[in-house]
Amino acid sequence: MRRLFIDECLSEDITIKGDDAKHLLYAMRVRPEQVFTIVDRESKVAQAKVISCTSDTVQLKLLQYIEDADTEAPIEVVVAQCLPKGDKMEFIVQKAVELGASSVVPVVSCHCVVKYDDKKKLARQQKWQKIADEAVKQCGRTIKPTVEAIVNLEQLAKDYADYTRFICYEAEDEQSFKEMLQSADSKKYLILIGPEGGFAPEEVQLCKDAGFKSISMGKRILRAETASIAALTIVMYEKGDLGGIFNF
Predict the structure, then answer these.
(1) Most buried residue, 43, 193, 197, 247, by CB count within 10 Å?
(2) Could you tell me the pTM of the whole model?
């Protein structure tokens, strides 16, 4: 069943306006009597039926609340991805949302090939957010993860100082990701993945000085898009809810 998110609390009568209404009306060809799953700003979930449509609004009537509908992991995981080439970021955003990431942070680092001016940075962020929003609806989540503005490593270190942070570094030969996770006791994690050219040594040192833990993803060199999804999967399996049904 199609899932809609609204920026207000659920009520008996629900009015969809703006871009969401246009998408329903002109892309999905919504008609009266259709039933949707609605998620409100407090992550409450309900079924609602379309009552009427105008040229720019869709009116729905709440049918019933859905109990035990929370699909979120018991931990927060931020995927900080240094900008990759081409459309790889789109893939990373989509899969990160499906796997349960709370947000995705695009990061500029020394070996990033792509360079954006301020206008393009905003345009890319908006595009990636739309991809995240569609992925949320498809996989049945109850919160909408954000794709944050593009930042540099220094800003990333400041903004997420209260998270348990890992930098996935191909030259790390002492600490495995699994061992570090097993010894961690946190509900908030950040995983930092480099671009195609990896991290410069001074960037790794900057992160270590800021409290990041340098970890190895194994003996093989992974592509940027593979590393980000693999790292998120490992965290969600070890500390989250991936791989089964758990009672926390």
Answers:
(1) 193
(2) 0.88
